[in-house]
Each structure stands twice: as structure tokens, then as C-alpha cells.
Amino acid sequence: MGVLDPLKGFKVTFKQIFEPRVTNSYPDQKRPKPARFHGRHVLNRYEDGMEKCIGCELCAGVCPADCIYVRGADNPPDSPVSPGERYGFVYEINYLRCIHCDMCVEACPTEAITESKLFEFSFTSREDAIYTKAELVVDDDGQPRHLPWEDWREGDEKLTSAWMRATSPSGSADAEGKVHWSAELGHGTRKPERGQSDLAPQDATPEMSLRERAAAKIPVRFGGRVR
Ligand code: SF4
Ligand code: SF4
């Protein structure tokens, strides 16, 4: 090692001092999450308030971590819970096991189960880690319920769906570029992402990458906009 080599190392350090900061003061300041981020699940409802879950157990069957427990029951004729014959009578997700792979979301035939952007939640008991149906079903405004041990911030509850069903049913060309998901309580029909339909980019759901979001802080030579 030459005598001047340490100084060369410090030269790199000093240059960085005058670069814009790209780090955030987490957890006080959280950066926006990507549109397809897999966080804590929600069970969605239709615009009329009915639950989308029909208790078919497909999500439980496909889950590689075996962490979903569902039991279906016949809808009471006088006060049906879902539009189908059956509804999810019991629904539990064990977050000590969940790996947020989203296979349950992909498998669900009614778009009942989707994921929010929340991942900042922790528990001190096994009971709290097993989320029940009452905790997972969205409230009367269609928003996820906030539990005491969850750190919700603005945006974590947004875009819980709208990206699935990107492919057309059975590959039919007639279905290409058309929205094929149902409306949701509190949100209506979620807009597709850019490229998923014939919507103009400015009308579609924004799906900027993290690099795009942080471009104002990143030097040009690393793909940002800072000169
Ligand atoms: S995200 Fe994956 S691991 Fe978690 S409940 Fe769904 S299928 Fe199971
Ligand atoms: S969440 Fe979907 S896949 Fe799971 S039981 Fe309900 S309807 Fe079936």
C-alpha cells in the first residue's frame, strides 16, 4: 500500500459528503412503497358491503406455508354475507408463518384476499400473530382495520389490489387490455397499471419504481436526476 492510498480513500468519502442524501430516518420517515408491494392482507368487500370471500379454501390450499385456515358455511337466506351460496365463516392467517408470496391472492377466484403495503407490524403473543376474519375484513369505508400493534402510514392502505387479473381469461384476444376485476367497497373499480389496459398512462395507476421515486436524490451517473 502506498503512502497516499489512505488519502485516495478519503477523497471518495469527502466527495460523497456533498452528494444529496439518499437515506431516510427510518422508522420516523418511511419511503413510499412500490404499487405491488406485498404487505399485510385484507379481505375485500363489494361496493354494496357484501364480502367477496366465498369460503372456497383455494387460498388455503395453495399457500406454501400452510398458514391460512378457512371454513366456509352456507349463506343465511335472510341475511347473506356474500353474493354466492357460501361465505367465509372462519378466516385466519398465521403471520408467524406467512412469507408474503401472494400465491393466495393469485389463487382467489373473487379477488377477496389481497395485500396492503403495511409490513411494520409485530406481536408479543401467538394470539396476536394469528389474524382473524374480524381483523382482516375491511371496514365500512373499504379501508383496512388498524390494529394497535400496526404502524400504518399514509399510502400503506392504497393499491391493495388492481394489479392482478393482468392476463385475459383463457387468452382471449377480446379481453386484452380490458379491466377484469370487480369493484370494491370504498374504492370502486381500481384502475389498471400502465400497459395493462388501453388507458392513457396519466389515467392509470402509478407504478413508479423506487429508483424513479428517489431520482431527485440520486446522481445522474447512478440513474438519477442530480447533476
Ligand atoms: S402470502 Fe403466501 S405464505 Fe402468506 S398466506 Fe398467502 S399464500 Fe400463504
Ligand atoms: S379468500 Fe378467496 S380463495 Fe380464499 S376462501 Fe375466500 S374466496 Fe376462496
Give a quick summary of the entry.
The chain is an alpha+beta fold and 227 residues long.
Largest sheet: 3 strands, antiparallel
Q: What is the share of helical residues?
A: 10-25%
Based on secondary structure, the structural category is alpha+beta
Give me the side-by-side strand order of the main sheet. 2-3-5
Features:
227 residues, alpha+beta, 3-stranded antiparallel β-sheet, two-stranded antiparallel ribbon, 6 helices, 5 strands, binds iron/sulfur cluster
Structure description:
With 227 residues, the chain is α+β, with helices and mostly antiparallel strands. The protein is built from six helices and five strands. The protein has helices at residues 5-17, 58-62, 103-107, 126-129, 133-136, 210-213; strands at residues 41-43, 68-74, 86-94, 113-115, 130-131. The chain has a three-stranded antiparallel beta sheet with strand order 2-3-5. It is elongated. The mean pLDDT is 85.
